[in-house]
Amino acid sequence: SVRLRCCHSPPRPRENPWNGCGTPSRAYLHPNPQGWARAETSGSMADSKETAALFESIGIAPVKAKEAAANPKVAKKLRAVIDLAGVGSGCDKAVGVLLYKVATVVKKFEEAKHMDKILPYITSGKVKSNQQMAALLKELTKGPATFDAAAFEKNCGVGVEVTAEDVKKTIAKIFEENKEALLEKRYAYQGVVSGKVRSALKWADGKTVHQEFTRALKAMLGERTETDKKAGSKPKKAKKGAKKGGKAA
Predict the structure, then answer these.
(1) Are 150 and 30 within one domain?
(2) Greatest CA span in the chain, whole angstroms?
(3) pTM
């Protein structure tokens, strides 16, 4: 007998290519499992062009897309990431570049954790900055065995909005708190203050932070003097084997 499925029935869940353990299944990544090895090593020119076109559809530059398509390991991982992220019909370049980073940075997919739960944070734009991506990649490779959405979002700065005005106020406060040391040690103390700023503005735009930090530093200390330059330069190390003292008379 033929069983008819009601048009209102919910669709069957898509197979997870990682099978819950972080390893993409061969059947999922290639329609013919028996031809897996052959497809990995040779592959037709048509398949390579089709794969390159797929990569270009997510915003990857043509040259880089062709290079990725010609690399069996990268192509296999990137195709799996694209499918699991649900962007097979294309996406914004900003999203595609981050998905490409996932496929190329995560070397061992069998060690990747909760890929199906984490990728939507990229496609939805909730994770987009370099700082957030660094945290996301750390969660993928070194995160806990059990996925905790609240903990993940906190660790990756999801939902944290830092405006240019926030950056300006935070840097001004830190400079005021360290004013005495800055005026005394000047540019030699720059690294200490920079570390405090980075810690306080972890999820802020890096370029905005750098520009405001540089502006505030010059406003307080002025341009570097010759004394500043000498204080910041490291003394040259003596060459090994060099004799101490002057020549014998």
Answers:
(1) yes
(2) 112
(3) 0.67
